[in-house]
Structure formats: C-alpha cells, structure tokens
C-alpha cells in the first residue's frame, strides 16, 4: 500500500540516497567513539553555548559529553536526536534528524550532513534544530517540518494538510511520461493534484506540455499554484478548485492522470499516526472499497478522454482486479489495458483506454 512508510526512501532524492547510505555507515562508525570527549576537543569553538533541550530530556542525561555546556557539532546533534527519537518511538529516527539537519544546513543532499559532521552549529542553528525536532516529537512528518521535499527532479513546497507526495508516485509519472513522449501528447488532465507533484513533474520534463489540474481542496490548489509558480510552469498550468464529479469542460485530453484517494476506509485506522494527525483525511479515504473517487474518475474519463487516449491511475493493491471486472461489467466505455508494478514488485498502477469499436 502506498503509505507503508511516510519517509519512503528516507531521502529527498535518489542521488542523495546513495550519499546518505554511505554516510550513514560512517556515522555509525563515529558513534562508537561519541562518548569520548577528547576525540571531539578539536571540534569545540568559543561560541558554544548551553542547549536548553539537552537537560530537559531525561533520556539524554549523561549520554553526551559536551553538549550540556557547548553547542553541539552536526554529528553530536544527529546522535543526540536520533537517540531521543528512538526512545520516544518516533518512526525513522535517523532519517528524521538527518533531514532536519540538512534543512538547517540549507542543503537537500543528506551526504552533505555527513560532510559537515564536524561543523559546530551556531546558536541560531541549534534553536532551529531544537524547534524542528520538537515538532517531530509531536509526530509531524519531516516533510511538513522542513516545508519542502524532492519529487523526481523537482523540489516542492509542502505544508499541512496537503498530501505529501510519495516515492511510489514517481513511478506513475515515469509510466505516463513514456506514453506522453511516444505519442507527442500536448495536453494532460490531472485529477486530485494535491501539491502538484505529478503535473509539475510532467511539465518540467516535457517543455511543450500543458496541464489542467483539479483538486477538491482549496489548500491543495493554492499549494499547487505556488509550486507551479516557483518552477516557472504557471503559463502551462490551469488549476481549478473542484471535485472530480463537478468537473465541467468541453475539452478532450490525450492523457488523464491521477493519484486519487484510494485507501479503504477500513484500512485508515492502520495508517501511521503522522499521516492521521497531519494529512487531510479526504486525500486518503477512498470509501469502503477504496474506489469512490476512482469510479467518478471513470465517468469523467468516459467524457473527456480522446478515443486514442490513456488514463493512468495509482491504486491500492486490491484494485487492479476489481477495476478490470468493474470496467468489463460496467456502463463506461473504458477497458483496462495494462497494469504496472512499483519498485517493490506490487501492482499499483493501471492504464485504461477507451474500448475500441469492433467492426462487424
Ligand atoms: C492521494 S492525494 C494525491 C495528491 C497528489 N496527486 C500526489 O500524488 O501527491 C489525493 C488528492 O485528491 C484530492 N481529492 C479528494 N477527493 C477528491 C475529489 N472528489 N475530487 C477532487 N479531488 C479530490 C485531495 O484533496 C488530495 O489532494
């Protein structure tokens, strides 16, 4: 299911993931001598000051040698907060603090955190790290805390309660892009755009492509517009705040794409607390069978998909078979053409086309 882990790949880009994994192993090496003050003396600087949070957390007392009296280094901060998060049962503790430190160091490459491990954080940086980590202790997703996240090769602004794009959806974009490039598609319709991850990526990748995007949430539409603006895509993107069932247009599209809400209502309670506390329920809950909005998308696609066009959807694992049967039995003039697996080998993406006229 799409929400196995909120951090997903735990890194903001695939490239940084490689650096990060390498760095991680080195961090664990450094942690073996973290308790020895002498090894760290060369990192001390005159402007080190007391960290308020250091003594507040009883789990941390006595763990680190210098941080009660001096600002910590990047490495010490990473170790300290990783330990606190672990003790407080915050998910993905190391990834969380690594991303927070990267943000404070103004980089989106986690390898840079390792590179600057000996840097002594300034008072302001310590305050920022502490404030962000306090939010993480409240189970706020790290993407909301740092206010941005990479998706494919673009960076998106993020804020609650707009859905955080998941790594799986990068695959949906990749599948659609192949079709868009092969058929020289010039215009797409994205339903349920959220932060604009899918449309912004498509338009960023194909310079003559334009998109109509819609979402029921005003917050999502605003954020999508901001992201389109930052990425200089505004001229090619039309954003409408409306529900799938209310979409009204005379236009036809060669590609319709969506990552709609598709979690089965019965599965909602099993989602991570981070998701339930901070993300819009309406972005996730797809009704009893998870197909409430998907069925509305079929009705819309029936009207707005060109005869040679394709509808690309990300769905729950249980859906491809249901969708095949639904379209075979139902009144829509659509049929399931293909399914695609995600990187974990699970069937998560469907490509749907108009039923072809059979000559008699
Ligand atoms: C799973 S999120 C996907 C967001 C974005 N496409 C992404 O992949 O990051 C689903 C989005 O659908 C929107 N949504 C939910 N029900 C909708 C409806 N009936 N019509 C239009 N948008 C809807 C939510 O506001 C949310 O932004």
What's this entry about, in short?
The chain is of the alpha/beta class and about 350 residues long.
What characteristics describe this protein?
single chain; 360 residues; alpha/beta; Rossmann fold; 2 domains; two-stranded antiparallel sheet; 9 strands; disordered N terminus; binds S-adenosylmethionine
Please render the helix and strand layout as text.
Layout: H1 14-31, H2 37-40, H3 52-56, H4 74-87, H5 93-104, H6 110-115, H7 123-137, H8 142-146, E1 148-151, E2 154-157, H9 167-182, E3 187-191, H10 197-205, E4 210-215, H11 218-230, E5 237-241, E6 253-258, H12 273-278, H13 292-304, E7 305-314, H14 319-329, E8 334-341, E9 347-354
Helix pairs in contact: 4-5, 5-7, 9-10
This protein binds S-adenosylmethionine (SAM).
- Domain unit count: 2
Order of helices and strands: HHHHHHHHEEHEHEHEEHHEHEE
Strand content: 15-25%
Describe the global form. Answer: elongated
Mind explaining what this structure looks like?
This protein is of the alpha/beta class. It has 2 domains: 14-146, no CATH class; 154-354, Rossmann fold (3-Layer(aba) Sandwich). Helices cover 41% and strands 16% of the residues. The chain has 14 helices and 9 strands. The protein has helices at 14-31, 37-40, 52-56, 74-87, 93-104, 110-115, 123-137, 142-146, 167-182, 197-205, 218-230, 273-278, 292-304, 319-329; strands at residues 148-151, 154-157, 187-191, 210-215, 237-241, 253-258, 305-314, 334-341, 347-354. The protein has a 7-stranded mixed β-sheet, with helices on both faces. Strand 3 (187-191), helix 10 and strand 4 (210-215) form a beta-alpha-beta unit. Helix 9 (167-182) packs across helix 10 (197-205). Mean pLDDT is 85; it is low at 1-5, 8-19 and 29-68. Bound molecules: S-adenosylmethionine. Residues 163, 165, 169, 192-195, 197-198, 214-217, 220, 243-244, 259-261, 280, 282-283, 293 line the site of S-adenosylmethionine.
